[in-house]
Every structure is written in C-alpha cells, then in structure tokens.
C-alpha cells in the first residue's frame, strides 16, 4: 500500500513514523520499481523501524523485495548504548554472501578463440552445485584457523597473493570472530565445502567491459572497454546457513527474556549488550571469514584454470565486497560521531571517496560496488557516491532482484533451451543443474539497468562500467 508513502522526490519515498515505528522508513526507487515491489517490503520496513535502538531510519534499496523478517535490500543501524539489537534475519542466511571482481589482463579477442575450453576448464576446476564438495578437507584446528583468519588464512595456506587482501573488505579478515561460538553442526557442514560455489544464483562469470560511464573512475579502477574481468558471487555455504538458522531459533525463543516485543516473529533479535547478541556477532563474523576464505580459494582455482589456457595471465583483484553482514562502523548522525551496528541484507556497502575504511589506492575515488544482473544480460560496476554515508550509512543495491519465483521460472523455461539460446548470443553457460539454469533464466529477474539508475539518481552509487557475460558457471 504505497498511499502511506510520502514522495520526497522521484527517487526517495518516506514512511513517517507511526505506531510502534521509532524512526522513518526510507525507500530509494523510481515509481516503476516501487510499483513492482511487493507490499511486504513496506510492512517489513515499518517493522524494522520499530526495533529497539534503531538509528536515523530503516532503509530499503532500489532492488528491495520481501525477505525473512527484514526485506532483502534492507539497511538498518543500531546503537548498543541506546538498547540496540542485532538480528540474524537482518543479516540473512547466506552470511557474507558477496561479489569479487578480478582483472584478467586479457581482452575479448584473446578469450573468444578459447571460450569453449575456458568454460569447460572453469567448470572442471571449481566445484559447483547443491552440496558440492571440494578437494579441501579441514581438520578441526584448520577449521578454527580459517574461521578466525578468513582470506588472510587462505593466502597463508597458499591460495592467492597477499596483494589480494588489500582489495578485500576488512583486508580479508573480519575482526571479532570466535570459532568457539560456531556450533559443531555448522563446522561439520563446512568441512568439505571450502572452495565450492554452491547452488542457485551463485556464479563465476567471465565478463567483458561493454561500456564505461565514468572514464576517470574507470581508469582508477583499472577498467577499459573491451577488457575481460572475472566475477565470483558466493557466500559462506553450509556454515553460514547453519549459524543463521540456529540464531533465528534462539533469538526468537529468548526475545521475551530481554523484554523485546517482536512485531513479527521473523524479526528475532537480541540486544547487542547481551550474551546472545555477542555470541551471534562472534559466530556471524566467523561466517564472514568463511565467505572471504571461500571466495579467495575459488580465486586460486580460477587462476589455475586461466593459466592452463593463457600461460601469462595474471588475475588481480579489483575488489571483494559482501552484501549480507552486520558491521560495527562509525557514522555521523546529526553531527555526532556514533558507533553503530549496520545491518546490510542484500545491500552492498558503498563508501564514498575519503572513507578511512578504504585502502589508500581506492580512498581518493571511493569503493567499487559490484552489482550482479543476470547470466544473459549485464552486470554493473559502480562507485560509492560522495555523501552516501548520510543517505544510507554508505550502502547501495546488490542486484537486479527477482521478478518471479523459482517455481514460476521453472514452469516458463527449460534449462537446456536457455543454454542454447544464450550460446547463440555468444554466452556459454555451464552448470551441473539444468533445473537451476531454468530457475535462473534472465527473464526471471528485473531489469538491472533500472535498479542501478535509481541507485545513481538517489545518490547512493554511480555507474562506472557495464559488463556483459562471456562464460557463466552456475551453481
Ligand atoms: P543474491 O545475492 O540475492 O543471491 O543475488 C544477487 C544478484 O545476482 C541477483 O539479484 C541477480 O541480479 C544477480 N545474479 C543472479 N544470477 C546471476 C548470474 O548468473 N550472473 C550475473 N551476472 N548476475 C546474476
Ligand atoms: Mn548467497
Ligand atoms: Mn548474494
């Protein structure tokens, strides 16, 4: 029901606090995207705005849609001093799911003659699919080292270069992780899954830079039209899912103990200043490290695959950013610097130029924001916009967002037809699951152009380049 929304301008909509809401809900989208959004997004935004200790506003990004408790594409920050909470549903099940993009140093014309071989090699080297198992088996001590060390651990183990860490959020290692807070069940699920892509919308994609919108920033990012890049989208696999599942259950059970009244059971949360809150944070940060390590190991396998075909190729990391996290960050609120716990669920961190969180090489320009589209259309590389910290705690959209459910998509398309049609357009799809490909058909997603244009118009992030797929390995 959009009638309860107040239009600030063409790309900003506000729901003023009413009833239990402590702060406004702010939604960034154009009128068309807003029309396509399910009503649940607004309801969920209002519910989030009612949680204890929320600061400034509950935000929804242009690709927002219904999620468990919090909308996907939701951003909310909480202050521990004000009774603030942490919510497992505000992070999402695939903790630290994220995207990394690497330069390959190759051009489209280098790839085309070997496209088929490259697709097969990548499929061969990178385990993908439901419950896919890798070649790496972690003993308990290694598991704990991985959960504490993240991508830094992976690099120490020989999966990649120290230079990769500079271009990874948190420099590859999330502080405050505690493997002792991760259940045995979660560790058990993960012990053979390192370096695997998983299923569904997780992908590894060889892409060409098809257009540059902001030449100056593109050069700073090392991107030029015709360049080929490699993008990896995946998360913390079984471990993150298990941690999320357990935390949701215990948070829902314990909420009354903390005197928290939940407008919706799915909003299960715990005070930041509680044992339950601190345990979840320590486990969630371990899962962030798992995701960072996982993308780092996949990078290593992808480098091996590229080197088999292009012996002098050197894949260098542009950036790795997560879109399912809760992070402790300093933000200015009404002229005051405050320590906040920022939940981004299906929302990409998007810090503008000058942010002290960025490595020196990116600080003058801003953070790369990596946005998936579909395996048959385009994806985007954006940059965090100046002043975005005040609009969304420095966040942006994370993808196109689904237009229809997996079930609907499965009825509408057949996987082998999708593969054939895309092959006719020069895009090679490889996947262990043709059903998965049907569910992920490009037509099942909204137009990513519209989402990124709205993010740009709302001052969240600015388009730098558009990339188009050459090869997609689908989980
Ligand atoms: P999520 O993080 O919600 O699982 O997915 C993020 C976004 O990735 C989706 O909204 C969708 O736009 C995008 N996406 C899903 N599959 C693919 C793919 O195969 N290739 C590309 N480039 N993007 C994809
Ligand atoms: Mn994911
Ligand atoms: Mn994701």
Could you please describe the fold and organization of this structure?
With 475 residues, this protein is of the alpha+beta class. 33% of the residues lie in helices and 25% in strands. Strands 7, 8, 9, 11, 15, 16, 18 and 19 form an 8-stranded mixed beta sheet that branches. A 7-stranded mixed beta sheet has the order 1-2-3-4-5-13-12, sandwiched between helices. Strands 6-10 form a two-stranded antiparallel sheet. α5 (140-156) crosses α10 (275-309), α7 (184-190) packs antiparallel against α9 (237-254) and α9 packs antiparallel against α10. The longest helix has 35 residues, at 275-309. The chain is globular. The model has no long low-confidence stretch (mean pLDDT 96).
Quick take:
This protein is of the alpha+beta class and 475 residues long.
Descriptive tags:
15 helices; binds manganese (II) ion; binds guanosine-5'-monophosphate; 475 residues; 7-stranded mixed beta sheet; alpha+beta
Uncertain ranges: none
Beta fraction: 25-35%
Please estimate the helix content. 25-40%
- The number of helical elements comes to 15
What does the average pLDDT come to? 96
SSE topology:
Layout: E1 6-9, E2 12-15, E3 25-28, H1 31-36, H2 40-48, E4 58-65, E5 72-78, E6 85-87, E7 98-107, H3 108-111, H4 115-125, H5 140-156, H6 162-166, H7 184-190, E8 203-212, H8 215-221, E9 227-234, H9 237-254, E10 269-271, H10 275-309, E11 316-322, E12 324-333, E13 336-345, E14 348-349, E15 368-371, E16 379-384, H11 389-392, E17 395-396, H12 406-412, H13 415-424, E18 428-430, H14 434-439, H15 448-457, E19 461-474
Helix pairs in contact: 4-10, 5-10, 7-9, 9-10
């Amino acid at each position: 029901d959009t009638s309860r929304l107040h239009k600030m301008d063409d790309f900003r909509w506000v729901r003023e606090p009413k009833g239990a809401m402590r702060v406004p809900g702010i939604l960034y989208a154009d009128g068309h995207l807003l029309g396509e959004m399910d009503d649940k997004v607004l309801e969920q935004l209002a519910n989030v705005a009612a949680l204890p200790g929320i600061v400034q506003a509950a935000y929804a990004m242009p690709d927002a849609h219904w999620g468990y408790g919090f909308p996907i594409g939701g951003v909310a920050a909480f202050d521990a001093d004000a009774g603030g909470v942490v919510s497992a549903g505000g992070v999402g099940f695939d903790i630290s799911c994220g995207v990394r993009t690497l330069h390959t140093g190759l051009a489209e014309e280098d790839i085309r003659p070997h496209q088929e071989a490259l697709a097969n090699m990548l499929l061969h080297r990178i385990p993908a699919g439901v419950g896919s198992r890798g070649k790496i088996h972690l003993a308990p001590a290694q598991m704990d080292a991985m959960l504490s060390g993240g991508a830094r651990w992976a690099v120490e183990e020989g999966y990649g270069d120290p230079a990769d860490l500079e271009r990874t959020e948190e420099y590859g290692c999330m502080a405050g992780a505690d493997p002792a807070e991760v259940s045995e069940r979660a560790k058990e699920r993960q012990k053979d899954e390192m370096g695997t892509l998983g299923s569904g919308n997780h992908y590894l994609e060889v892409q060409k830079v098809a257009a540059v919108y902001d030449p100056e920033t593109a050069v700073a990012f090392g991107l030029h039209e015709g360049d080929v890049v490699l993008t990896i989208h995946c998360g913390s696999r079984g471990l993150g899912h298990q941690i999320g599942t357990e935390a949701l259950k215990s948070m829902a059970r314990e909420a009354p103990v903390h005197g928290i009244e939940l407008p919706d059971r799915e909003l299960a949360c715990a005070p930041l200043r509680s044992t339950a809150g601190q345990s979840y944070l320590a486990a969630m940060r371990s899962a962030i490290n798992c995701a960072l390590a996982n993308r780092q190991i996949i990078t290593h396998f992808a480098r091996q695959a590229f080197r088999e075909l292009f012996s002098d190729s050197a894949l260098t990391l542009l950036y790795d950013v997560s879109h399912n996290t809760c992070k402790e960050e300093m933000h200015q609120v009404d002229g005051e610097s405050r320590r906040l716990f920022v939940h981004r669920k299906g929302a990409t961190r998007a810090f503008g130029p000058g942010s002290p969180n960025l490595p020196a090489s990116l600080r003058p320009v801003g953070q790369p924001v990596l946005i998936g589209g579909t395996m048959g259309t385009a994806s985007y590389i954006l940059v965090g916009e100046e002043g975005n910290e005040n609009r969304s705690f420095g966040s942006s959209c994370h993808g196109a967002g689904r237009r229809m459910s997996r079930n609907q998509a499965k009825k509408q398309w057949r996987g082998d037809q999708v593969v054939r049609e895309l092959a006719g357009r020069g895009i090679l799809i490889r996947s262990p699951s043709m059903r998965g490909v049907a569910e992920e058909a490009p037509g099942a997603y909204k137009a990513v152009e519209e989402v990124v244009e709205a993010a740009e118009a709302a001052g969240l992030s600015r388009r730098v380049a558009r990339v188009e797929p050459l090869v997609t390995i689908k989980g």
